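Shipment paperwork, digital attachment
Item: protein structure file
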Amino acid sequence: NFDKYSWQFVNGKQIINKWKNLRDIPATSKESEAFSKDLRQRGFKFVGPTIIYAHMQAIGLVNDHTTDCFRYKQIK
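Attachment content:
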């Protein structure tokens, strides 16, 4: 299923970053680039690494809340 497929790009474990400032949060990652590339090879369109990184954040593959954010500790 798509859930299992998605988690393979982070080896089944959430990436927990430790950003101190919003400006430090990247727009892409090596994982989102690999995910994007694989989707494009499967015929998907409009799935560049930036869009996929945002998707990864939204579904919980990546925790990019800054360390001072109350949500950082809640989802860590």
